[in-house]
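Appendix B, record 7
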Amino acid sequence: MNRQDRTQTRAWPLSLLALSIISSLASAQGYDLASANRSQVKMDAWKCQRCEVKDATTGEIGVGVAYNDGSDSRFGNTTGSDTDGAVASLEADLTHKKASGYQTQFKADRLGYDAGSASLTTGRKGQYQIAASYRGFAHFDNNDALSPYRLNDSSWQLPSQWQSAATTDQMSSLNDSLMASELKITRDRYRLDAAYTGSFYEASLGYQHEQRQGNRRASANLLTNSTMLAERVDDKSDRIEGKLYFRGDQWLTGIDAELSHYKNDINALHWQSAFSPTFGAAYYGQSAVAPDNKAYRVAAHSQFSAPGQQVLMHLGFSRMTQDQAYLPATINGPSPMLPASNLDGQVDLLEMKLKYLGRLTPELSLRAGYDYRDRDNKSEILSYPQIITDSYYSGDKLNQAYDRTRQQANLGAKYRFTRSLYLDLQYQYEHNNYNALDRDSLQTSDVTAKLHYRLSSQWQAWLKAEFEDRGGSEYLGSSVSNRPNNPLLRRSYLADRERQRYGLYTSFSGEALSTTLNLHLMQDDYTDTQIGLTQVDSQGYDLSANYALNEQINLSAFVNQDWRDSDQAGSNNFGSANWFATTKDKATLIGAGFNYDALMENRLRLGLNYSYNDGQSDTEISQGLHSPYGSYYATRHNLNAFADFNLSESLGLRLDWIFEQYQDADWANDKLMPDSIPNVLTFGDLSHDYNAHYFGVTLSYQL
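C-alpha cells (predicted):
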C-alpha cells in the first residue's frame, strides 16, 4: 500500500464521524429529508430507465406440414390425424405484456389436426382473466368395416338390387354390395372462461360447448337375426358453470353452480332388414338412442383453519331430468299402447362431506372424514309393454327405479418417529343401501398401513399393505330379468370378497442418475361365490431410470409388466358348477430414449424415443376336457425421432419422424367374413396389421 492509499484509509473514520455530526445538526434545525422543499425538484430525471417495463411480445410461432403414410386409420390415434397424405398445422406460444400489467397469451398445438388445440388468455395477473379455448379429440377405430348399407335420410338402407335371404350365405348380392365404412368419433370442445379476484372474494363464470360426430359399432336385432351397423353419432352438450368464493384470514367459503343440457340430433337407429322375415312382416327395425336430458348442480363449500387444525365441509345437490318423447313400442305391426308420452324422469343426488385434519403434537397428526351420497330416482313407476327385438309382444313389466345410499367414514393417523421414518395408518368403513339390485345392503371394511423411510438425502422407500373385507345382506337374486338367474350366481361387484394388497416403492435421485422401482401385488378371494368370478390374482412392477451422461446427453429407460389371473365357475344346467374358466392376462411396456443438446455450437438438438407394448390374454375352459380359446393379443412398436435446428437467432426448423408397427388378433374375429355366421351379418375381420410412417416439418419464428 502506498502513502496516498494509507492517507485515504485513515480519512474514512474522520469523514464518517463528521458526516454523522453534520446530519444531526441539520435534522435539529429542520434540514432533514422529511422537511426538504421538493417543489422545484425535477422528479422525472430520477426515473430508473432500466426498471421500466415496456410493452413487448415474446414467444414462438410456427407452421407445420406433415405427411401421413398410413392406410389404417388407427394410426391417427398416435399422430392426431387420420388423413392419409398431407396435413397442415399451426404451432404457437406467444405472450404480449404491457407496462400497465396486462398480459395476453396465445397457444396452439397441432391446430388443424383432429386432436389439435388452441387457447387465448388475457387479463391482469391477480385481478382478472378472460380465456377462450378450443380442443379437439378423436378416436379412430377402423376404416375397413365392410357393409352393404348406405345411409339414406337418417335410415340405413340396402341397395335397390338387394335380395334378402334366410341366411347370410344365401344373400346373392352381398359381395357386390360391400363397401368400406369408417368407424371413428371426433369431438370439438369450445370454452369461454372469465375470472375476477377482489380483495376478499373470487368469482368465475364458464361456458362450454361440445359436439361429437362420427360412426361407432352397433348391433341391430330382429328375432334371431342380427346385423352390424355403423351407428351415427351426432350430438352436442352445453354447460354453464359459476363460482363465488369469500375468504378471510383463517376461513374460506363459497358456492358453485352448474347447468348442463345434452341434445342428440339422431332420433333413432333405423335400418332395413337384410334377412327374410322369420314370421310376419319385419322388414325394418328401430332402436332407441341416447335421449335428450338436462341436469343442474348447486354446491356449497367451507374451510376453516387454525394453527395445526383444518376443517372442510361440502354440501351439494344435483337434479337430472329427461322428458323426450317416446318412440313407438314397435314399428312392426300394431304398437301396444304406452302408459305415457315420455318418461318424465327425475333423479336427485344429495352429497355431504366433512373432513378434519389436525396436528396434535410435532410427531402425531390425525385425519377423519365422513362422506354421504344419496341417489333418489323419482321417476314414475308404470307398466310398459315388452317388445322382443322389435318383433313381438311378450307382456308388460314395471320399470325399475334404481336408488342407492352410500355412507363412508375414515379415520387415519400419521406418526413420525424420526425425521426419516414415519408410519401412516387408516381405517375406512363403507355402507351401501340399494334398491332393485340383488342385495339390499353391502358393507366394506378396509385397513391400510404405510411405512415410509428416507435412507438418505437421495434414497427413500415405503412399504404399504391393505386388507379389505366386504359382505352384506342376504343375496336375493335379480328380479329385473324376465328369466330367473341361477340362485348360486353372484355378481362380482355385489359378492362377498376378501382383498389383500401390497406395495413396495423406492427411489434414488442423484446428480446424474435418478431411478424408481414400484412393486405391487393384489389378491381377491370371492369367499361365498359358487357361480361367477371366484378368484383374481394380479402382480406387477414398474422400473424407470434417467441418466445425464453429460451436460449434452440425457438417457432414459423404463419397463412395466403386469400379470392378472382370474378364475370363474359356471353352470349350463341351472345347478351347481359344472364348467370352469381360467383367464391369464399379461401386459408389457418397454421404452428407451435419449436427447442430445447443444450440437453445432448450440444450434442443433436431437432426440430418439422407442416404445414397445404387448398385451395378451389366454382363456381356457374346462368341462371334463380342456378347451383353450384362440389368439387374443395386441403388439405395438413405436419409434419417434426429431431434430431441432436453429437456422438463425429467430428462425428454427424442426423435423419429426414417427414409425409405428401394430398388430392385433381376436380369436372371435379371426378371418371373419361378412357371411361367416348364418344369422349374423358382420363387418368382417376388424383386426389391425400395419406399418405406418409420419413425416413432419415445422418452421418456427422466435419473436
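Remarks on this record: The first strand starts at residue 56 and ends at 69. The two ends are 53 Å apart (CA to CA).
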